[in-house]
Amino acid sequence: MGQHMPSYRLDKLRQSPSLFLAYSGIRRALRKAEAFALVGKGLVIFIIPAGYRPTDYCTAARYLFEGVPEFDWVEGNSKIRTAVPERRNGRFEESVSAFDLEGLAVLVATNIEEVSLEVRFAAAAILAIEVPSPAQIQAVRRLTGKRPFPDQVAAVLTTSTQSILLAAIARQTLDEEQLRMLDDFESLSYEGPSLFELPGYESLKQWARQLAKDVDLCRQGKLSWKKLRTGVLIHGPTGVGKTFAAKALARSLGMKFVETSVGAWQSKGHLGDMLAAMRACFQAAQDSRGTVLFIDELDSIGRRDNFADDAHGQYWQVVVNEFLIRLDKLQDNVLLVGATNFPLLIDPAVLRSGRIENKFALSLPDRETRAEILNWHTAATIEFESLLEIADNLEGWSGSDLERLVRDASAISRHQERDLELGDLLAKIPERGSFSPDNLFRLAVHEAGHALVALSLGYASSAMITIKPSFDPASPGRLGGVTEYEFEENHIPTDTTLCNSIAVSYAGMAAEFLVFGDRSTGSGSDVERATMIARKVVYSYGLGNTPIVAEMNPRAKDSAINWRLEDNVFEILDAQYERVLAMLEPQRDRIIALAKEVMLNLHVKIEREG
User: Fold this and answer.
1) 437-607 is classed in which CATH architecture?
2) pLDDT in tens, 142-153
3) 473 near 480, Cβ under 8 Å?
4) Distance between CA atoms of 574 and 9, rounded to whole angstroms?
5) CB 453 within 8 A of CB 606
6) May I ask the CATH architecture of the domain 195-361?
7) Phi and psi at residue 37, in whole multiples of 5°?
8) CA 245, 246, 250 angle in degrees (round to 5)?
9) Could you tell me the residue ranges of all domains in the chain?
10) For residues 488 and 474, what is the distance between their CA atoms, to the nearest angstrom?
């Protein structure tokens, strides 16, 4: 078999180096195992090198076994298959099981875990295909009409990924220096700062430093990659730099960066198309000796329990289950980084230990970090104290907002052919709006209510009230006041402490009502927090009228139990709002006096008496 290759088949292999190498690899594996006689007599499973395309090996097997009598009476597609289902005639094949063994002669897998135990048991042989040898690389060069490589270059290419190897074969010439350039291009596809060079991201940096040490041990062969925790979730609001952090992490680890999103998978079409895109993405991540696979919008995969009563529930069950399979079969040297704005919408099975078990919350930068980000983007060309003053008026700005500010300011200096100056930054900062004295007083009253109730209930030992007379018109929240607390330690929340938290949330709104006779929309986030706590009391903690734990699933809102629990939530919220009104009504004059002091000083700290 295969001793005298027909000329038309040789032409096919000449046109496709990847096909020729796959063909040669199969022949070599069969020869070493003396297993040629097994082909067509029983199932042979081929385990191909990591990162190589299984479809190349399927096609090569059809060329190699053409003419074998056992292959003549059945179409090759049904005799030779991949362990991961392929798309055929607009639909996906089922995964190979014990029910599909009749007529199956060759199964191609990227790792043995893709093959079920019963199929492995049925196999006549399981053969590992080695990476292309120097001789095979030189042969494909000659076959494609190119001069062989220097021996040392061919030897180095045997350790390269399939993508690097094929790129090298396509070149007319290749020396060792050019090979290093090609390898660097593949392994470091993101050219930018490392995570450790960036301001902020402190918790992520601490984890990444230890990971970098472990990755280095893996590369030295002193540690197995499976010993590492290779899944991480980065979550936070839009603009905090989740993608930027993932790219910088890849740079820090000296790894290739592969970026995708669940939305990109979904855009491919129907269920089969989405699953194909997902599998292709994980396969692409295996094309490098070290890859950070970044998956954005991870929440879009959804939670299976949220689709239990949905007409499309079966669709999403398949999607989540397939994603879990991909996670469990993640190749060595692949670090998966997921990103989301809504971590609670991700299926718990995705985030369990052994899958994506490391989680880091990113938040909008504080004043000091905003100044550091500006300092980094301006290459420290402007005095840091001046950047601190600028940062003081950029509350709510994300890292990407600050980067754009410097980019826009740099355009001014560039067009005027000079270095960046402080005035360029100031010129690009939007003009701030100013609160009227009446609005500023309302802000102070609101924060005074929070502070007084927090101290009265023992929620905090002290409270710092801050208001700002100006605001960023582009900011949707227009945050003008804030109260920061020194909390009393409380490691075991109770009915009382949870209700106190709700009361503190309502205190700003209640103070406004008692002083002005009406309430402002500035209480929206406070009410949202109060509602969230009340629902947790009833649904999650079982501390409502009926001790029961239930899912806060809006799809089940029509059920009798959910209406009963929601009524309990309303009772708690009503009681706490009335409680706060009763607490603050006798202190109306104190609220007004404290608010006036805050207006005068902008910062006032009060402490609990006694």
Assistant:
1) Up-down Bundle (1.20)
2) 888 889 998 888
3) no
4) 81
5) no
6) 3-Layer(aba) Sandwich (3.40)
7) -70, -20
8) 115
9) 7-128, 134-187, 195-361, 367-429, 437-607
10) 36
Q: pLDDT category, 2, cuts 50, 70, 90?
A: very low
Summarize the chain as % helix, strand, coil (round to 5): 55, 10, 35
Q: State CA 209 to chain mean position distance.
A: 19
Confidence tier at 452 by pLDDT (50, 70, 90): very high
Tell me the per-residue pLDDT of 552-574, one tens digit each, with 9 for 90 and over: 764 455 556 678 889 999 999 99
For 602, other C-beta atoms within 10 Å of its C-beta total 14
**Phi, psi at 413, each rounded to 5°:** -65, -35
pLDDT greater than 70 at residue 544 = yes
| Two tokens, residue 128 | 């590992």
CATH fold, domain 367-429, is: Helicase, Ruva Protein; domain 3 (1.10.8)
The larger pLDDT score, comparing residue 449 to residue 91, is at 449
Which pairs from 542-549 meet CB under 8 Å and 24+ separation?
A: 543/495, 543/498, 544/568, 544/569, 544/572, 545/571
**Which position has the token pair 């990971």?**
211
User: 560 is written with which tokens?
Assistant: 């009798």
Distances (CA, A) of 201 to 207, 366, 443: 10, 12, 32
